[in-house]
Design a protein that fits this description.
Two copies of one chain form a homodimer.
Chain A lengths: L2 H17 L6 H8 L13 H21 L7 H18 L1 H10 L5 H27 L9 H14 L10 H14 L8
Helix pairs in contact in A: 1-2, 1-3, 1-5, 3-4, 3-5, 3-6, 4-5, 4-6, 4-8, 6-7
Chain A binds a DNA duplex through loops.
Chain lengths: 190, 190
Amino acid sequence: MSARRTELTRTAARLFAEKGYHGTSIGDLAEAMGVQKGSLYAHIESKADLLWEVAREGSAAFHAALDAVADEGPVVERIRAALRAHLRVVAEQLDVATVFVREWRYLEGERRDEFVTERRRYEERFRALFREGRELGELRADLDDATAALLALSAANWAYTWLRPGSETDELADRFTALLLDGMRGYASR
Amino acid sequence: MSARRTELTRTAARLFAEKGYHGTSIGDLAEAMGVQKGSLYAHIESKADLLWEVAREGSAAFHAALDAVADEGPVVERIRAALRAHLRVVAEQLDVATVFVREWRYLEGERRDEFVTERRRYEERFRALFREGRELGELRADLDDATAALLALSAANWAYTWLRPGSETDELADRFTALLLDGMRGYASR
DNA sequence: TTGAGAGGCTAACGATCGTTCGGAAGGTGG
DNA sequence: CCACCTTCCGAACGATCGTTAGCCTCTCAA
């Protein structure tokens, strides 16, 4: 893919995150690229192509980040690593992450189905960590792992709204992990 | 406000939640109301009015729900009550809640500023619970209450994506509360 | 030196957008 | 019975939408 084409995708990610997919016109994109709107069609076939591309980039980034998490060792450490990985992607590719979390729903047809499949798979990989943690006895035996995963994923999926690039995401992830593991209650009242 | 006007607001909330504000045309709204699109202007001055109204309805609903939470008694119980209140609003007014969480950003000018103020205030009310819990010794003394509130608010704000009307929201809220308070770790490894 | 491809321009297309307007039907209160 | 108010219709408005077309101008490899 040419440099110009890559730049267009980045610009699309930025504008889609900022103003929404339907709130961003081809004219807006062209203006941001410093070009007449008709010229964009040297690179794409339709506006929907750009949404698809950014959404796929998001899928790829989040899955790749999870791939780097060890699949052995203490589950607790893997949960911490998974949260770190997720928040790192959000901070480093905030626009792409925003499209991945919020704008994907304007995809249509097969592309939408394919995206949803990948998104479900991502959440399932997350969920598996909590299930395994309970089964291996690292997490409490009576843990409702579906709810636990939902809580962790809520924090992960909501992060794009407040996380700003340059944040110390590893520390943030660790604070979340500590909270999830040990809770907020004082030792005395436990 | 006339019955017809109320119906229009409800329809707007539904369509904005379903297809997004910019993804919903005046024509879509008119069709859903069984009317020509010009006819809608007997009720509104602009499409933006509808977004503003639904967003305000969301603000009002969430604040009212928090108002019903006692301002004394054990903080832990008030946190549980606050989560219950929030999830109940999401489940009972899913469309309005969706606009409150996701579509508000298409508000413009003063209205946007006013909404943001109300939204900040809502989150601040939430945050105060965790601060107070720490100060009163009900939550651990070394609690990072900003992060704790962020985690709880993440769960609350993300709920519109998966909560379906008719869910037993009180139970869900209690599961979240239990997780937040006592964590996921097994007693043995604590 | 030539030719091909990449990237951009201008102009225009049909469609759809949000909004306006004058008029008419129907019900309500005086 | 009349005057009014609400609600809707039908038609049109200018603006903007995504997309297409033909043509021009570089760059660079053959």
